[in-house]
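Final report, Chapter 2: Outcomes

The project's central promise was a pipeline that accepts a single protein chain and returns its three-dimensional structure in a standardized token representation, suitable for archiving and comparison. That pipeline is now operational. To close this chapter, we reproduce one record exactly as it appears in the project archive, with the input sequence first and the structure output second.
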Amino acid sequence: MNRNIAQIINKAIDGGELTGLELSRLLTVDYLSEEAYMIQYAARKISAAAAGGKAEVHAQVGINAGPCPKNCHFCSFAPVNKIFEAEKVYSLEEIIDKALVFEADGANAIYLMATATYGLPAYLAVARAVRTALKPETPLVGNVDDFAEDGAIALKQAGFAGVYHVLRMGEGRVTNIAPGTRLRTIAAARQAGLLVGTCVEPVGPEHTVEEIVEKTMLIKEIRPVHAGSGRRINIPGSPLEPYGALTQARQAHIIAAVKLAFGYSVPGHCGGDYGIAAMAGVNLSWAESGSNPRDTQANTVIGGTVASRRETFQQAGWEMVEGPSVLFSPG
């Protein structure tokens, strides 16, 4: 085993802060090598220690689908991808029903996702109704368009425990969103007392080690309650489709290396796929219903269920958090 790589792995296990250069060295290891499996072992060990040996399954309800002006090339809602030509909005009754089914199935937290065409006032109205329908202890998490300080305060007052927000790979190049806008939203959320979950995603074969390192080190500064790395699921006909997609094996290596950089301070570790990755440190996944930016159907058929996500974790040797999310708990 390469002595330098072993030293970096041991530094992470001992709680040391990895540098960008050290992360870069981990990411350039052959993902089928002995070193790669040691990186995955270390990531699993750190994740288990940071999360008390338990995994969580959250659930997301997509409340609308349709052409979105942000035109993110990796998203099925992007007009450039020509998947959704008309707006589809789920009724309040449908949204509440989906959220309650997820809660009854054992989801540890409920997320509400909307595209940028869904105005914040309407989103807050839906959220208040969902918040009232759910058990008081079930965390509600937002996944919504960028917002300023007043929006963050309104989300907090509507009953959200936190938000999922990401400075995506290629932001500003393959999206109509300036990177600074994403960062200002995350700062506003934290200022308002909202917990933040984020990710290094969506990663494709064309993304460089340098860009992965950049996003990872930025996330370390945010100190979110969960982070990780997700590979891009290509939308048929997307401008990004010709680049191909990462294999689950390569993505598991990236997920593990990123975890060593995050260390023990980020208890939740997520990834876009949960089979191999659950052995490589991933301890958080999502079931999904309604719209899904990776699916071409308005009511997702690829989102998975709470039961299937839990089964994957249990098969990978994880115990499950029962009841409300620990990651999004107020304490």
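Archive annotation: DSSP finds ten helices and twelve strands in the chain.
This record, like all others produced under the grant, will remain available to the consortium after the project formally closes.
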